[in-house]
Structure formats: structure tokens, C-alpha cells
Amino acid sequence: MRRVTLTRFLIEEQRAKGAIEGDLRLLVEVVARACKSISNAISRGSLTGSLGATDSENVQGEVQKKLDVISNEILLEANEWGGHLAAMASEEMDLPYAIPHRYPKGEYLLLFDPLDGSSNIDVNVAVGTIFSVLRCPEGVDEPDERHFLQPGARQVCAGYAVYGPTTLLVLTVGDGVHTFTLDRELGSFVLTQENLQIPADTKEYSINASNQRHWEAPVQRYVGELLAGKTGPLGKDYNMRWVASMVADVHRILSRGGIFMYPRDAREPGKPGKLRLMYEANPMAFIVEQAGGAATNGHQRILDLVPTTLHERVAVFLGSRNEVERVTGYHAAAR
Ligand code: AHM
Ligand code: MG
Q1: Is residue 283 part of a domain?
Q2: Closest CA to 47 of 64, 63, 76, 67
Q3: Between the CA of residue 106 and those of 20, 35, 82, 103, 192, what are the distances in Å?
Q4: Are 132 and 255 contained in the same domain?
Q5: Residue 146: which CATH number?
Q6: pLDDT tens for residues 118-127?
């Protein structure tokens, strides 16, 4: 069997399609290496005392888990010295991280959620890392928050790692979506699936139904119809899955279709949703669209939204195209 490692895949893509610039290739390899280290840290769990909470909170007011902090540090350390980045931003840091002056700077901005699905860390359920790559605006030497505030459509690369029964890296550079599986004996990510496609129709949905009483009318209508099953207006029975790690839920959708929803709700009316636009929704929306799916905030394509702050939140509906269009249509009809 021909084994294509991530390194070989990236070099061949670069040669054949010119789709990947040298520095972007380095960036992806460095992020992948960091994900291997995170995977190792997670797999040792209690053996190294790395489970449990710290006594600090992040900018969103969430208590940081030890592994949130460890994963953030692994990504920063791996990426700061290679000369491929102008700056980084993370769910775990209030402000962008400037590349130390002793290192050369590159043309890319890297954003990440170092460990997504934090509530699952201590219970041995799949978690992941999500990342997004933008270009630093030309002529900007010392990027600050403003330079990150670009619509998701400008991403040049996005990906996620899932730390589950196997460790996977799912990647797009705007030329389809590909999956790599970590071969622990080789120490390399190996290409295991090319050009993933999300079926346009599905019989599976994901939503945290405990928030139902807080949802807006279009979401009530849509989920009501899903629950009504075969005898309802949609004429078929639907199954429900909710891992509570977005990476795992999105990965299932990439594998067999489905719709993932984290709508805005009335728990905190000031917030337009729970998930963060720049390092959760945007990279996932880019990946989902590259796999033939759709992603909206109920009203607009997520990738067209112009961010106003680094940590802003957004409602998310993504996955199988026909279902995302249906629930987006219900929002338009309710206006
Ligand atoms: P996190 O980045 O702090 O882990 O939060 C994001 C996670 C998503 O992975 C997941 O879809 C969602 O929060 C689960 O939320 P809830 O606990 O409300 O079901
Ligand atoms: Mg997250």
C-alpha cells in the first residue's frame, strides 16, 4: 500500500497545483507536530497529573483546564520561532500573541482553539484542536487585533485535530478536505481519506436540547419538525447525536452527514451564540463548505461575516446542505 505522509502530501500538492506556498507548508507541518504533542499529553491523562482545572479563567470567563493551558503553550512554542507567522491568537489569550523580536516574522496569522470540548477532557471523551490561517495585511509589521478581523472567506487554510480512539488531522487549503491519521509507530500523519464530501441530505442532527426553552422561534420550528419524524412535515425519522466537542460532532458530519446547531438563545440575550467566530465557526465553516456542505448563522453565510472583535461569538448551523438551507430559510421566513 502506498503510504502518503502529510509531508509528502503537502510537497506533492505544492508541485502539482501550486496550491500551497512554502511557508504555509511549514506552518501546517508545525501545527501538525504540535497536535502530536497535544495528543501525547492527552493520552497520558492522570498519569502525568494533567487532568483537572487550574485556578485561572480565560478571557471568556471560563475556568481553564490544565490541558487547555498545556495545549496553548505547545502551539505557541511550536509556532513562534519558524519565521512563518506574523502573530497568533488563541481562545485562551485575551490579546494576540506577538512573535518575539529575536525570531524572524512571516506573512501569516494563526488562530486556534487549542483544546476544543474542554468539558470532555476529564471524562475521557474525544476533544480536539481547531485552527485557522489568515494572511497578515501587507505592510503590517506588528499586527494587533484589528489585523485579525478579516472575514472567514479570506482564510487560506483551516483544520482540526480530533483526539479520539485515533488521532486525526483534517485539513483544507481551499482545494478539498483531506484526513490524515496519526501512525504512532511512524510518528507521522498518514493520508487516509481524500476529498471528503458531506451528503446534501441527512437523517441526523446535533443540538444541545437542554436549551430548548431558550431557543428562538425558527429553531423551535425546525427541531419540532425533526422530532415529529415520519408523520411530520419532513416525512422521515431523524436520529440525534451530541458529543459536546464540536470537533467530534463536525467530524461525524464530515464522515456521514448531519446538521450541527449551536443557535443563539435567550440565556444571555447579549450574546449571539456560544461558539467563537474566528477560531471555531470560521475554520469549521471553511472545511464544511470545501466538503460540499453549508454553514450559516441562521441568516448569512458564516464565511461572509466581518468580525468586530477577536473573541466574538456567533450562532452556528452547519453540515448537510439541504438541512442547513432549510433552517436558514425558516429564519428568513420568521423575519
Ligand atoms: P470550548 O471551546 O470551551 O470547549 O467550548 C466549545 C464547546 C464545543 O466544542 C461544543 O460544541 C460546545 O462547546 C458544547 O456546549 P454545551 O456544553 O453547551 O453543550
Ligand atoms: Mg472550543
Answers
A1: yes
A2: 67
A3: 15, 21, 8, 10, 30
A4: no
A5: 3.30.540.10
A6: 889 889 999 9
Tell me the pLDDT tens digit for each residue of 174-215.
999 999 999 999 999 999 999 999 999 999 999 999 999 999
How many alpha carbons lie under 13 Å from residue 92 in its C-beta half-sphere?
24
Please give the number of the atom of ligand 1 that sits closest to the Cα of 113: 2
**3-class DSSP state for residue 94?**
coil
Atom of ligand 1 nearest to the CA of 117: 4
Report whether residue 107 contacts ligand 1, using a CB cutoff of 6 Å. no
Mutate to test the pocket of ligand 1, among 57, 71, 245, 268 (most ligand atoms within 8 A of CB): 245
- From 132, 159, 193, the end of a domain falls on 193
Say if ligand 1 is within 6 A of residue 246 CB.
yes
Tell which atom from ligand 1 comes closest to the C-alpha of 262: 11
Q: Which residue has a Cα nearest atom 18 of ligand 1?
A: 208
Please, what is the average pLDDT of the chain?
94
Does residue 273 fall inside a structural domain? yes
273 lines ligand 1 (CB under 6 A): no
Whether residues 131 and 185 fall in one domain: yes
- Name the residue at shortest CA distance from atom 14 of ligand 1: 244
Question: In ligand 1, which atom is closest to the CA atom of 119?
Answer: 4
287 Cβ contact list (under 8 Å, min separation 6): 158, 159, 160, 170, 172, 177, 250, 254
Write the pLDDT tens digit of every residue in 263-294.
999 888 888 899 999 999 999 999 999 999 99
Q: Are strands 275-276 and 239-240 parallel, antiparallel or unpaired?
A: unpaired
Domain boundary among 174, 193, 212: 193
Task: Find the 262 Cα to ligand 2 centroid distance in Å.
Answer: 12
The reported pTM is: 0.96
Give 302's pLDDT tier (boundaries 50, 70, 90): very high
Domain hosting 252: range is 204-333
